[in-house]
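Schema walk-through. Below, the input block comes first and the output block second. Nothing else is stored per chain. Lengths vary across the set, and this one has 148 residues.
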Amino acid sequence: MKFKVQTTSTLMLWCCMLITIVVFISFFTGSLSEKNDVGLVLQWTYILLIATAFIAFIFTCRNIVNSLKTYPKSIWKLLFPPLVFILLLLSSYLFGSGKILNMPQYTGNFNVYLWLKITDMWLYSIYVLLGITIISIVVSIIWSNLKK
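--- output ---
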């Protein structure tokens, strides 16, 4: 069973990588019109993002259910990361600006309060997570050198 799961996941990884490479080669070589290339890249990015979020959600729920059966007191350790992530998203949404941007040539529908707040929310969340990642890498390097 383990071999079958490993083979399937490896096959899916290589298929996604192949599609991603084809999409980005198409984008960077300009083989299609510029508008189609940007749309193709964005659509593929959305598909990967949604698939990743869905799979992460499913595995988190499964892990919580399995852990509740075996170790009922460990629920707080399992719920802490998703709760912190939700708190990060909520706080970054509150910090976001909904001020309408002055863009004379823009004719799209996304220069409205809601989308501006959501955009700021994701940008601030990315900044915080990137900062945490960099800090943890530096602390890990320092910690491993101090142990020697």
